[in-house]
Amino acid sequence: MLAAIDDAVGDGVDVMSVSIGSVGKPLPLVDDGIAVGALHAAMRGVVVVCSGGNSGPSPATVSNLAPWLLTVGASSIDRAFISPIKLGNGMVVMGQTVTPYQLPGNKAYPLVYAADAVVPGTPTNVSNQCLPKSLAPEKVQGKIVVCLRGTGLRVEKGMEVKRAGGAAIVLGNPPAYGSEVPVDAHVLPGTAVSTADVNAILLYVNSSSNPTAVLDRSRTVVDVKPSPVMAQFSSRGPNVVEPNILKPDVTAPGLNILAAWSEASSPTKLDGDNRVVKYNIVSGTSMSCPHVSATAVLLKSAHPDWSSAAIRSAIMTTATTSNAGGGPIMDADGTVAGPMDYGSGHIRPRHAMDPGLVYDASYQDYLLFACASGGAPLDHSLPCPATPPPPYELNHPSLAIHGLNGTVTVQRTVTNVGQGKGNARYSVAVVEPMGVSVKVSPRNLSFSRTNEKKSFRIKIEAKKGTTGWRVNGQFVAGSYTWSDGVHVVRSPIAVLVA
Predict the structure, then answer these.
(1) CATH class of 1-76+223-353
(2) Cβ neighbours for 164, distance < 8 A, ≥ 6 positions apart
(3) Which of 184, 263, 481, 478 shows the shortest CA–CA distance to 356?
(4) What is the location of CATH 2.60.40.2310 in the chain?
(5) How far is CA 297 from CA 20, 294, 302, in A?
(6) Of 160, 312, 325, 429, which one has the greatest count of Cβ atoms within 10 A?
(7) Is 212 helix (H, G, I), strand (E, B) or coil?
């Protein structure tokens, strides 16, 4: 990775798109090759965008944790590939699929639950998973098999149904995945359904002596609501290396994304799948990362004089926490998402082109941060001072305070970059985290020219007598937002009270 980053810097690239993350426990910054390489790239003005990882929805799973990286989560878009399933009782369930295979004719096929069709000796806890060699051919031959997600690869489950002679697969979500339905280029006819819909299908299967279903052709629909929704697989914060830096930074489209595909690899990558395709539908933060990288390229083209920190800031402070319908961005399980899920929010490239204000930072700022965070210098030509400023003092577009005990005051500095706004007056609005007081001073900032800088202080204080709001030591979220009536410059606040 270091060699690749070094070559890219030597080639003069402006943006690096790094759809790669650490495996296992994240490393300290000094030992993290991507972080070290990206710091030197940032010093040369290169914007480095990284995937946050696909280990969600468990907390503290996000990777690529350095503040000079733009770390990206994954969310859905407003497109679906709907595929109706007509059950024998007349009920219609809406699945999603992109498999090119169809059942011949518009006729009903027998429907069987995988757990009722396994070979003897299959462990009960995985009997519904359609794992390799688990299905009994005599029980699934010519039938549509209902399998559940969870253990094993989704496309591998379809391969097992095909091996056993099944006609098609219906892949259902367990409760943890809710309504999030990833689609796959299965090796046989089939479709995927939400938790509620697979429960309805199984209720019908268990109540019928001869359950059947018809799988209709799929079609593409747009303007799906709500969208975006956070993908359950998207890795979550907090940052386990330095909890005083919020990660991920933003979220972007990463579920069911149309992507170019190498013709040297089949769409499923499974042995026995010999198909050759130019495009595939893919899910993961490896898909959301290049969306943000492309946004960075647009910003670099429009503002070639901006630093990599300024570009990251523009993307973060103009992100939105609202979905297309105006409601809050949700998780796939139906709960309201927050900064540990999406960081500053979902990217808005058009808004990022003219953010109004940016939070800039230098190579030396990042070295001081690394000294405070890990205690080791990342550049031996600049040794760590005896008492570096605390990590939350980094001039970062978001604010995280871990272990708040009493009061903490931090300083931030913004640079006026508003297009056509040499003179600008900004006022601040604060949304306090539950049980935490947030005071910004001064509350108004006036700029008389472009590229002028102004500093302000943020006083964070735990309110007395409010221990009842603490829930299992979780971060609480708020925000502060600067606005001049045209630009909205929002920064999330995440606080964990000691």
Answers:
(1) alpha beta
(2) 135, 136, 137, 140, 141, 145
(3) 481
(4) 355-360+395-498
(5) 19, 5, 9
(6) 312
(7) strand
Other Cβ atoms less than 10 A from the Cβ of 223: the count is 9
The closest alpha carbon to 48, from 59, 40, 56, 60, belongs to 40
List Cα–Cα distances, 353 to 21, 214, 486, in angstroms: 28, 49, 13
Contacts of residue 69, defined as CB under 8 A and 6 or more positions apart, other chains included, come to 34, 35, 38, 48, 49, 50, 249
Rounded CA separation 251/228 (Å): 10
Convert the pLDDT of each residue in 167-212 to its tens digit.
Answer: 999 999 998 888 899 999 999 999 999 999 999 999 999 999 999 9
Give the fold, CATH level 3, of 79-222. Answer: Glucose Oxidase; domain 1 (3.50.30)
Which residues of the chain does CATH 3.50.30.30 include? 79-222
Q: CA-to-CA distance for 370 and 377, rounded, in angstroms?
A: 7
Residue 312, sorted as left (phi over 0), alpha (psi -120 to 50) or beta, turns out to be: alpha
> How far apart, in Å, are the Cα atoms of 195 and each of 42, 95, 198, 384?
43, 11, 5, 52
The token duo for 451 is 């590229």
Nearest CA among 297, 286, 341 for reference residue 319:
341
Q: Name, in order, each residue with C-beta under 8 angstroms of 356's C-beta and a sequence gap of 6 or more.
A: 416, 417, 418, 421, 424, 426, 482, 484, 486, 487, 488, 489
Bridging pattern class, strands 212-215 and 109-113: antiparallel
Kindly report the pTM of this predicted structure.
0.94
Which residue is listed with tokens 């600067």? Answer: 482
Name the architecture of domain 355-360+395-498. Answer: Sandwich (2.60)
Beta bridge partners of 453: 415
pLDDT digits (tens, 9 = 90+) for 297-326: 999 999 999 999 999 999 999 999 999 999
Give, for 146, the enclosing helix (H) or strand (E).
strand 144-148
- Distance, CA of 372 to CA of 363 (rounded, Å): 14
One digit per residue, the tens of pLDDT, for the chain of length 498 reads: 899 999 999 999 999 999 998 767 888 888 999 999 999 999 999 999 999 999 999 999 999 999 999 999 999 999 999 999 999 999 999 999 999 999 987 899 999 999 999 999 999 999 999 999 999 999 999 999 999 999 999 999 999 999 999 999 999 999 888 889 999 999 999 999 999 999 999 999 999 999 999 999 999 999 999 999 999 999 999 999 999 999 999 999 999 999 999 999 999 999 889 999 999 999 999 999 999 999 999 999 999 999 999 999 999 999 999 999 999 999 988 899 999 999 999 999 999 999 999 999 999 999 999 999 877 788 888 888 989 999 999 999 999 999 998 899 999 999 999 876 568 999 999 999 999 999 999 999 999 999 999 999 999 999 876 554 444 568 999 999 999 999 999 999 999 998
Phi and psi (nearest 5°) for 280? -145, 165
